[in-house]
């Protein structure tokens, strides 16, 4: 008699006993679960996802615009020759003159005027410097330009968001180019709006647009052809004309 027949006969015997009910199959089943297979697979999948996200963020960070990159310093921007250095220093002086002659009717205007003087001084010191000191003066040059854009934005619109001004103050030492871009954009919008409202400002606004366009061309050309002489000095002059038209807004 085989084992199955024995089990069947035993079940029939027990079913006759009062209070005993034989279940033909156990209600509990045992399944063999691998110890590490499923866990390892899910762990590997999550790790691959995290690594993919990190690589994507790293690529995006590497392709960030120039205004979000650190400031690098070298003997470019027309300072590779004595004549180029002299031209860059001379074309920095108009910013000092613009700051001295800028309207000073309130505290915000005074801060803007003084920051313009600081731009001219910082630019002159940077272009005349060499060695290790040049790196720090380059940072000072960019930071003064950004601070001037913030001061001009504040002078034009006293109701600027406190959060924006606080964020600008925090980012100013680390990302001065980004701060300059944001506040310059705000100034352009304010200038265009006031030129539409006041016909007397339209001539200044037209000169502003032309000088801004030329300044952008010279800025890009200076970055693409850093050894070309006097490109940086030309950008100084275009920027000075652009700033001079902005002062009309404060009169």
Structural class: mainly alpha
Shape: globular
The share of residues in extended strands comes to: under 5%
Low-confidence stretches: 17-21, 26-30
What is the average of the pLDDT values? 80
- Estimate the helix proportion, in percent: over 70%
Question: Can you write the helix and strand succession as a string?
Answer: HHHHHHHHHH
Number of strands: 0
Molecular structure report:
It is built from ten helices and no strands. It has 251 residues and is mainly alpha-helical. Helix 4 runs antiparallel to helix 5 (107-128). It is globular, with a radius of gyration of 36 Å.
Condensed summary:
By secondary structure, the protein is mainly alpha-helical.
Key features of this structure:
70% helix, mainly alpha, 251 residues
Secondary structure layout:
Blueprint lengths: L2 H13 L21 H26 L19 H9 L2 H9 L5 H22 L3 H25 L5 H10 L4 H22 L4 H23 L6 H17 L4
Helix pairs in contact: 3-5, 4-5, 5-6, 6-8, 9-10
